[in-house]
Amino acid sequence: MAERTENSIRARVILQQCLHARLQVKPPDAESEAEWVEINRGMVIYICFFKGATEDIIPKMVNTLLNIKLCETASRKYTSVLELPGSVLIVPQATLGGKPKGKGMQYHGNISRDEGLILYDSFVSQCENELSACKNSETATDVKHGTYGNRQVLKLDTNGPYTHLMEF
After folding, report:
1. Fewer Cβ atoms within 10 Å of its own Cβ: the N or the C terminal residue of the chain?
2. Do 18 and 158 form a contact (C-beta atoms < 8 A)?
3. Does residue 4 surpass a pLDDT of 60?
4. Helix ranges (DSSP H) in the chain
5. pLDDT reported for residue 71
6. CA-to-CA dists, residue 87 to 27, 95, 156, angstroms
7. Secondary structure (3-state) at 104
8. Strand partners, 108
9. Mean pLDDT over residues 124-150, rounded?
10. CA diameter of the chain
């Protein structure tokens, strides 16, 4: 298999199994309190798209990420979030595209905000479709997601820092 060059990477994802996760999707202001989304057992997906990413990468990403055996069962075996059953929290994370330059970070390789939002919305939608397609009356699966382009507060409980980096 040919080694992937940095310019061929179209998306970077961090996967983290979780017992509970809570993400602030709207900060508090003078008129309202903060708004949050949350999931129980499942997986957090941090996602960043790079320049050159297109819609055609999304189905492969969704299939790979939702079927990977990352979640630990009571018998200490690993299963996918689809088989758990578990929920998914998707967090847009542009900082995954950062590169150090001097004492700072630069994000020149990231996709534009408008293009990134389109891909992010498609990714969320396809994850929702995939999880709803495998639901039955005994499963409590859910897809929650953050707000693209906003800084968000995340509270995360895990049963170990079982974190994985994947690139597409």
Report:
1. N
2. yes
3. no
4. 58-67, 113-134
5. 81
6. 23, 24, 14
7. strand
8. none
9. 82
10. 55
